[in-house]
Amino acid sequence: MRRGDRVRGGATGFLLPVLILLVAALSAQPLLIWAQSNGVELANSQKAEGVPPVGTHEDGSSSNWRAMVPGDPSAPGTVSDESVLAAASSGSPLVIPAADFSSDGGFPDGYFFDFETGFLRGDDFACLKAPAYLPHGVTVDYVGASLYDNATGSVTVNLKRVDVVSGAVNTMATLGTPWNSTDIQSVGDNDIDYEEISYPAYAYFLTVCLSSVDHRLYSVRIYYTEP
Questions:
Q1: Fewer CB within 10 Å: N-end or C-end of the chain?
Q2: How far apart are CA 38 and CA 99, in angstroms?
C-alpha cells in the first residue's frame, strides 16, 4: 500500500467514531428537552390536582425537607460570626429560641420543630426543657414568652433553678396562656422569686409542656439587671 493510502485510511478510522458520537448527541438533545418540558407539565398538573409536593404530608402539614435545601451563603442579610458574638455579649434580654428546647425523655416523639417558621409544636404530648445561661450576679426582672394556644389546656413556661449540691429545685417564674386564640400570645411574669443569679451554687433551666398540635412555643426572653 502506498503512503498516501495509509494516511487516508488512518484519517477515516479516526473520523468515524467522532461522527458517531456527534450524531448520538444531536439525537439525544430533543429527548432531553422533551423530558424537561414534561417534567414541568407534570409538576403543574399535580399542583392543579392538589397532589402534595415533595416535603408535604398528605394532611397538608409541612415537613422539614424543603428547609434542608442549602441557601446562598453570600446572599444579602447573611449574619457574620462577629455580629452574632457582639449581639450575644450586649446583655439583657437573654433570648432562648424554641430550637434550644429538647425532650425531657418522657415522650421523645411527641413534638415537632418547624425549620421554616422556627416554632415547636406538640404532635401529641411532650414536655421539654432548655438551659438558661444567665450571667452571674444579675437580677432577673421579667420572663416573657411568645406562645400559641388554640386548644384545650394552657401552655405554661417555668424558669427554675436547681441547687447543685442538695438537688433542691425552686420555681423562679411561671407564665402561661390565659385563653385560646388563633394569634401568637405574648405572656410574661415580673413577680420573680430567687431573682439573683448565683454560680456555682445553682444551675438554671426552662420547662414547658405541649399537649396538642395547636400548642406552640416560639421563644422565651429573660430580662435582667446587671449589678
A1: N
A2: 40
Q: Within this chain, do residues 19 and 102 fall inside the same structural domain, yes or no?
A: no
Q: Are 120 and 217 in contact (CB under 8 A)?
A: yes
pLDDT tens for each residue of 129-168: 999 999 999 999 999 999 999 998 899 999 999 999 999 9
- pLDDT at position 217 over 80: yes
62 inside domain:
no
Residues 48 and 121 in one domain: no
What pLDDT is stored for residue 200 in this prediction? 97
Name beta bridge partners: 186.
146
CB 189 within 8 A of CB 173: yes
Cell digits for 223?
430580662
Which residues have a Cβ under 8 Å from the Cβ of 139 and sit 6 or more positions away? 195, 196, 197, 224, 225, 227
Q: How many domains does the chain have?
A: 2
| pLDDT over 90 percentage in the chain | 57
H or E element at residue 8 = helix 3-49
Q: Is the dihedral of CA 193, 197, 200, 204 positive or negative?
A: positive
Q: Supply the range of the domain harboring residue 32.
A: 1-55
Q: Ramachandran region of residue 167, left (φ > 0), alpha (ψ -120 to 50) or beta?
A: left
Residues 98 and 120: beta-carbon distance below 8 Å: yes
> How many angstroms separate the CA atoms of 173 and 27, rounded?
72
CA dist., res. 177 & res. 192, Å (int): 18
* 61 found inside a domain: no
